[in-house]
Specification:
heterodimer; A: 199 residues; mainly alpha; two-stranded antiparallel ribbon; 8 helices; 56% helix; 7% strand; B: 219 residues; Rna Polymerase Sigma Factor, Chain: A; Arc Repressor Mutant, subunit A; 2 domains; globular
Chain lengths: 199, 219
Amino acid sequence: MNTKPDDETLALWLDDELKGDAFASVEAWAADQPDQLAARQSIRDWRQRIAAVIPGVEEPPYPDFFNSRILTAITDLEKSPAGAVTVKASWWRSGWFMPVAAAAGMTLAFWVGTRTAGSQSSSPVVEVTRAAPLLYTPETGVRADYFASRGAEATVIVLDGVPAISDALEFHDTAGLSPERDADSTAAQAKEASSEVAQ
Amino acid sequence: MNNGRPDPSKSLTGPSEPVGSRAGADPDDDALLVSRAQTGDLRAYDELVIRHRGRIFAMVRNMIHNEADAWDLSQDVFVKAWQALPRFEAKARFSTWLFRIAHNVVYDWTRKRKIDSAGEFNDEIFDRERIDPMASTAPPEAEAPDVSMEHGELRVKIQAALFKLSPEHRESVVLKDVQGLSYKEIADAMGCSIGTVMSRLFYARQKLQALLKDEYEAR
């Protein structure tokens, strides 16, 4: 082909997207088109330059957490059908409901307050076991297990795979607290103050 | 939502067949994983996320230039993709389809940021202050420190120039020159004609060449 290709074909050729016969025919036409050859080379140089400095693949920070958040969001979505949420939202936003609900809520809170004042609650305020936590360990090979006991009012997170703390580690070196010295100095200040008052 | 799917929480704990290599996103392996994910297999979908999160995160980050927002938005992409997965018919590659969703997520987010998106964007609307001078500059391969520094400086300059383009122009450059998509794939991802992509890319490259003129001449 010795006639100029249409714009779309030429653009595909400039970006090295043409194949087979189409490529061969445009290539034959471009052989005596130095400006087109230069334009193609310029695009190739640009692609090479940008590819060298801007990566096309970049792992997101905390990739494991990235995935676990997606899976949690999907699981939550599946548990709460969109239709029900929409219906609930429109009912909730209707004009008469808000003041009525507020008044009922205040009345209920007052009644509960009068009934429970002075009495000790035997059950924990927050039921931990119902709020299923998302356990995430940033270190590969470390497994986290979560145990919650309402009876014992205890929550335990067990990390399996964390390296043992060396016996040689001196905690006072890292903590940097010296409560005795602080107490002494405070006591000394108090003593000084009381002696000043006495004078 | 996801009508006809089994409960995904069961899939998380249930047995799962081994999946292919994570290194490359082979379209055939994608097809297998996609068909499993379409039946509600969350482990298969997790594997698809692992395969494609690098490209989606890079694309979103290059579009909005904020790592924290890009992190959140990339997750939105995969959540929306899961919701739309039953409608995916494998006419296009899974990665192209993801880019299409990423395009929508980024544009929705941009619209919410009250940036005028009517018609062609004004290239001057994005101010230079949004360009992060502390952006990560390390290329994927290990390089000599002087080469790395040179590439780091160049990356900052190219990114600064990219952010002077309209979002449409910037996206066409990102998808073509950074992600290596074909014109057809870009047209599918951006929801426009191939001719429009060609036009946008032509003007975007011209503008970049003008913005990076000093850089071009120095090399």
